[in-house]
UniProtKB/TrEMBL annotation:
Signal peptide: none annotated. It comes from Geodermatophilus pulveris. The keyword Cell membrane applies. This is Amino acid/amide ABC transporter membrane protein 2, HAAT family /amino acid/amide ABC transporter ATP-binding protein 1, HAAT family. Keywords: ATP-binding, Cell membrane, Membrane, Nucleotide-binding, Transmembrane, Transmembrane helix, Transport.
């Protein structure tokens, strides 16, 4: 019975193994077409170098060939990956396709490969062996998914910049994914060679690479079962055709193309996205906000109060002719909550981007937590203790709220993947510690009840809170928040203000940009005002509220005709509601997104949520 289906079943397994070599990089958001090159190099090298089955037995011969093939595939991936890993999207696809084609042409013209005639290889592989190999590969990716490493790859796929800011070394992770892909492609090449009896370079051409990619994309790159589903479909269609007597060769590519179109248009996550993705949410009580810190996470020593955390000297940034930041000198000390305010385009975001290492300064120096930023990669700045949120939400949208925060804990949690492969209890302990820590961070921002919700499904205000929870999960010493209250109502902004002050009581130093001036005055120990890229004032909230230069540059000037302070100007250290309409006139939330317009007036507050751009 099984013998009748042995061939299609073997090809399903082989196709799935090949598709896993694409899945290995798709999961990290990379598009590579070099796998056919890795597979052919592995197949020809292993078939030439492995001992004969007559000498050592069939299975040892195949196992030796597999080891050689995987090593060749992985080595080729390192050689190709080192110069190409900085390429993105279609550029990486083109570069890797060029490599695969070059390999094919070289193999075609070498004598020992048999050229176009090909190389004879004994058939050793059985359907059982093929499925065993597939099971091992699927197991690898199954155990990888929820590990710290697997989550880091997913984070890179979802938002590379945010992943870097969480302390993930993107280059190293992308190269590791590429090498895995090379090893799996090498495995496929050897298994294929030891099944089909005769291999030729044309077995690993462009069409084969596209077939592998289509199989992986059809199945989906967000769940480890994707390649098996994709390969099942790709292999079974011609079998079904044959069974019903419709043998037209165009049907399979036509259906595969059609399905690919449907998947890309309606199911970007592939067939596996029809299977609900489960997030393991800790039971109620776990990650209690009042609980003790979870053991098993790296502890960080925050700078003592008064110790220098940020030191900027003559920091400037130019974009062409635009002077976004000009000669800023600024010291931020341990335990301070520093608010950065200023009109739109004043250079606030550029300044915090330089502080967090995202943007190199044009001139001047910046030392943050002892690290010279500008010359230091973003993930190293994060490792020094800088964590941040972004002006325009940079969440990992297809991951749940809890998974987002788990990625945030990357720097303080331990690697678990290799121990997960071996089911070591210590990996379960570490995962539990990370889960409890992440849950505690979610509770702290009031999102404990939404742990299992996809980030993209959260309301705008909740997304802002989730970014803060994710940043907190890194146990930072310096927390940089870029407009954290955008899209929040007055009550929520008040709660956020209280949260920020409680974090400062815990020893964190906080630098935050906010257009809600009332909230800034209520929350900060010091306020710095930027205008046209320069610091025009720095002092306590009361000093800033009374500073004529700030009123002039930021809030507008008093109306010279009536001699009264402007609506929205500062009378006694608080801001009046610029709408003039029944506001409490107090600090919290009194002015939202205030912008100077004509002298002495303020635009009505912009309370509409800002779209993430
Ligand atoms: N990548 C860039 N390329 C060119 N110009 C830029 C870039 N980033 C910022 N700028 C310019 O630098 C200036 C400061 O921008 P920045 O975003 O830092 O101001 P901001 O104070 O944060 O403004 P907002 O409150 O509107 O966010 C603006 O004139 C902006 O157009």
């Amino acid at each position: 019975m099984l013998a009748q289906y042995a061939t299609p079943l073997t090809f399903i397994a082989l196709g799935a193994v090949f598709a896993y070599s694409f899945y290995a990089v798709l999961i990290a958001g990379q598009l590579s077409l070099g796998q056919a090159g890795f597979a052919s190099l592995a197949a020809f090298t292993a078939a030439s170098l492995a001992p004969s089955g007559d000498d050592v037995g069939d299975v040892p011969a195949l196992l030796t060939a597999v080891v050689i093939g995987m090593a060749v595939g992985a080595t080729a991936a390192v050689v190709l990956g080192l110069p190409t890993m900085h390429l993105r999207g279609v550029f990486l696809a083109i570069a890797t396709l060029g490599f695969a084609e070059a390999v094919r042409v070289v193999l075609l013209n070498l004598e020992w490969t048999g050229g176009a005639q090909g190389l004879a290889v004994p058939r050793v592989l059985t359907v059982g062996m093929a499925w065993t190999a597939l099971a091992v590969v699927a197991y690898w990716f199954w155990r990888m998914g929820p590990s710290r490493y697997g989550r880091a790859l997913e984070a890179i796929r979802e938002d590379e910049l945010a992943a870097r800011s969480m302390g993930i070394d993107v280059g190293r992770h992308r190269l590791a994914a590429f090498v895995t892909s090379g090893a799996v492609a090498g495995l496929y090449g050897v298994l294929f060679a030891y099944y089909v009896r005769l291999i030729a370079p044309s077995d690993f051409d462009f069409a084969a690479a596209v077939d592998g990619l289509v199989t992986a994309v059809l199945g989906g790159s967000t769940m480890f079962l994707g390649p098996v589903l994709g390969s099942g479909f790709q292999t079974m269609v011609p079998e079904i055709q044959r069974a019903v007597g419709v043998e037209a060769g165009w049907i399979r590519p036509f259906l595969a193309g059609l399905l690919l179109l449907v998947v890309i248009l309606f199911l970007p996550g592939g067939l596996t996205s029809l299977i609900p993705r489960r997030t393991r949410v800790p039971a109620a009580g776990d990650g209690d906000p009042d609980g003790d810190a979870a053991p098993g996470l790296a502890a960080r020593r925050h700078p003592a109060p008064g110790e220098t955390v940020v030191s900027l000297a003559g920091l400037s940034k130019e974009y062409g002719g635009v002077h976004a930041v000009r000669g800023v000198d600024l010291e931020v000390r341990g335990g301070e909550v520093v608010g950065l305010i200023g009109p739109n385009g004043a250079g606030k975001t550029t300044l915090v981007n330089m502080v967090s290492g995202l943007v190199p300064p044009s001139s001047g120096t910046a030392t943050v937590l002892g690290t010279a930023v500008g010359r230091t990669p973003v993930h190293r700045v994060a490792a020094a203790g800088v964590s941040r949120t972004f002006q325009h939400s940079k969440l990992f949208n297809r991951l749940s709220a809890l998974e987002n925060v788990l990625v945030g804990a990357h720097l303080v949690s331990r690697p678990t993947f290799l121990r997960r492969l071996l089911w070591l209890p210590s990996s379960r302990r570490d995962e539990r510690a990370a889960l409890e820590h992440a849950t505690r961070c979610l509770h702290r921002v009031g999102l404990g009840h939404l742990a299992g919700t996809r980030a993209s499904a959260l309301s705008y205000g909740d997304q802002r809170r989730l970014e803060i929870a994710r940043a907190l999960a890194a146990e930072p010493s310096l927390l940089v928040l870029d407009e954290p209250a955008a899209g929040m109502n007055h009550v929520e902004a008040g709660q956020l203000s209280e949260l920020i002050r409680s974090l400062a009581r815990d020893g964190l130093t906080i630098l935050f940009i906010e257009h809600n001036v009332g909230m800034v005055l209520e929350t900060c120990t010091r306020v710095v005002v930027l205008d046209f890229g320069q610091v025009i004032a720095s002092g306590t909230p009361a000093q800033i509220a009374a500073d004529p230069a700030v009123i002039e540059a930021y809030l507008g000037t008093a109306d010279p005709d009536d001699g009264e302070p402007a609506r929205g100007s500062v009378a006694d250290g608080t801001l009046a509601d610029p709408t003039g309409g029944g506001g409490d006139g107090g600090a919290t939330g009194a002015v939202t997104n205030a912008r100077p317009s004509v002298a002495g007036t303020l635009d009505p507050p912009d309370t509409t949520p800002r779209n993430a751009t």
